[in-house]
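Progress against Task 2.4 (sequence-to-structure conversion) is shown through the following example record, which the project officer requested during the mid-term review.
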Amino acid sequence: MAAAASSTDRPGALEITRKLAEICGRPFARFAGPADEVAGRTARWVAVPGGPHAAAEVLRLAAAHDLTVVPRGAGTKIDWGAAPAQVDIMLDTGRLAGVWHEPQGSSVAEIGAGTPLRAVQATLERTGRRLPVDAPSPGATLGGVLAADEAGPLRHRHGSPCAQLVGVRYLDADGELVSVGLPGTAQFGQAAPTARLGGRPVAGPGGAASGGASAVLGGAEVPGLDVARLLCGSQGGLGVLVSATMRVQAVPAGRVWVSRPVWTPLEVHDLVRAVLAARLDPAAVELDLPVPVSLPRRRIPASHPSVAGRPDHPAVTGRPARPAAAGSLVVLLEGGPADVAERADRLTALLGPEAVVNHAAPEWWGRYPFAPGDTALRIEVPINDLHAAVYALRDAAGTPVPVRGSAGIGAVHAALPGSLPPERVASILAAVRGVLLARQGRCVVVSAPAPVRRAVDLWGELPTLPRLRNAKAHLDPHHRLAPGRLPGGL
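Structure tokens generated for the chain above:
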């Protein structure tokens, strides 16, 4: 980075600004402002290229001047993960937008990385289709969703957005436009294009380019290196997404949400096992366990009119009342209206008299339990051990912790107050990770206040780190793309 001016008031910085304006257009290149930061690290320039070739020129300029580049979509997850070591150019993908798809009935759509997910769904809905993707971040772009591998409730049936990938176009660190697609798919106006990394072909089984291919990097084959899916979750550290070709499906004709109040993580465990064993083909199985709020209750005599004729009331029975519901377990059923109605009847019979069928999602559905300033955690564990993970988190924190997410696959989020000192957060993480380690689970810090982010291990043990380090060395050997954003300081 020594070749670049260290501040934007030097002649070299003005020259970079002029060149960026020539590439992107004068209104779309500027010095960065206070809001242009990545996890607390402020950028020096912001460039908004008008297309893939302009974006490639920005990367070539960065390479020529040894500048770092960090992509940004809508910025909804810009504070997730580690702060980059340096942000010279923030490459805004807002103009790399659009939805291109075949006529009605096509099973794929090519989508610009800067396209808001809501706009994608609205466009596809006109032809009765959708992406089976429902990332919780409001306003998120498809590129941002893929770069963070962000998934919502529909991951239960369809997997993460990465699982819907058919192919991608992305820019490597040198500004070369790379296409990676699965064999036999028509993508970007070509049939099964060959992916190239730095001018070297990526050969899949049978010699065709493949999203599940082994990659030939630096003359050596790296078994199982799936280039397209490596970009998922890489936060721009391996390449800049330009567009993605995704699987699409028909919009379900029927949808219902069957909810039941729940009181303890162990109860959730038993209910989830029962739901999955019943083979009801749920589209999502979501849990919401907020922090219960205890309100003072007025003692009501048994003779009071409000309890007269209610033999189950504690004032009549003398037994303590059941505590207010601490949360909800909600199952989404999708499909044909008659089929959904039949499965909903079976599910309510299974869940008992407290189960309720709704034709709209609960208010918390597809939202995170954390707020800006909180320490946000993601817990992934086999579903049979999810209750143990939640109990471990409660015990380590010394208090109930809000938990929400996909109980049907053991992937949930939790929130710790942002006011907790870093050493306290570190001790909670150590305790929870100790429990999860024996259960083949993980606890990752999604986002956190800067003092916490600097002091704690965000990722914990990561068996795939050597593979990630190898990919970084080949795809971005000079560490120009979002340096330090990946685990291990990559």
